[in-house]
Amino acid sequence: MKQEHIGDVLVITLPARLDAAALADVEPVFNAIINAHQGKVLVDMAEVGFAASLALRMLLMGLKSAQPLGGDVRLCSLQPPVAEIFRKSRFDTLFKIYPDRAAGLASYAG
Amino acid sequence: MHQSIEVVANDAGLMELMRFVDDVERYFSLEHEQEYLLRLSIEEIATNIMKYSYSGPASGPIRVECDATNGVLQVRICDCGAPFDPNDAPRPDLTADLAHRPVGGLGLFLVRELSDELRYHHDPATRWNELTIVKRPEAGDA
């Protein structure tokens, strides 16, 4: 997992496989940096080829913790199989999702 | 092509199952959607077994068998914990807003959505539960 600050946006790049094994490492760090940032977050999913329900839960928890503090968690660059999981679970109605990083960053600039 | 494994239903067992999925992907020629469902179903169902089927202090075995014949992927996941037919599980409320959106039940829902068939069988004599998940190849490929 990579994190970088672009302006006032925290961009988090998630690893290729978000299964139970990976999430044991990723989830505590993800939660900690979102809680510490308390602002605009863009999660770049370009590398994510697999996401299980635990990954959806992690993102949902991130959104729930960011929004009351005036922040947001937006997503970009979902690969087709992961986008399908978001559609089927209707998580695409909970998150603002952008086709690429530039569009995601632009959404915060407006 | 047939591969099987038996692990103890705990975190170490789940990691073993994830490595088993890597092997199955390597040896089977599966379509992308079948590979996705293979990994998803083993993770979600094994996690549910650990949480609900063996909910007491004692764990037990999880047995997974994968078979690909004529392009049809069949994943059989067995345990001898509490009987539970996933087909009887209520659908999670996917229309709830953020504050009320449930996170439980989502894994099983996704497995049901992505598979072509979900068959459950409980053998009262041996007390094994057997869940079979089927994913056929895309139309025209078979």
Structural write-up:
The complex is a heterodimer of chains A (110) and B (142). In chain A, 45% of the residues lie in helices and 24% in strands. Chain A is an alpha/beta fold. The longest helix of chain A is centred in the first third of the chain and has 18 residues, at 20-37. Chain A is globular, with a radius of gyration of 13 Å. Chain B has 142 residues and is α+β, with helices and mostly antiparallel strands. Chain B contains 3 helices and 5 strands; from the N terminus they run E-H-H-E-E-H-E-E. Chain B has a 5-stranded antiparallel β-sheet, covered by helices on one side. Chain B is globular. The chains are: A alpha/beta (110), B alpha+beta (142). The A-B interface holds A 19-21, 24, 50, 52-54, 56-57, 60-61, 63-64, 67, 81, 85, 88-90, 94 and B 11, 14-15, 18, 32-33, 36, 39-40, 43-44, 47, 94-95, 98-99, 101, 103, 106-107, 109-110, 113-114.
Topology diagram in text:
The complex is a heterodimer of chains A (110) and B (142).
Chain A lengths: L1 E5 L2 E5 L3 E2 L1 H18 L2 E5 L5 E2 L1 H14 L5 E5 L3 H9 L8 E2 L2 H9 L1
Parallel strand pairs in A: 2-4, 3-5, 4-6, 6-7
Antiparallel strand pairs in A: 1-2
Chain B lengths: L1 E7 L2 H17 L4 H22 L7 E9 L2 E8 L26 H9 L2 E6 L6 E7 L7
Antiparallel strand pairs in B: 1-2, 2-3, 3-5, 4-5
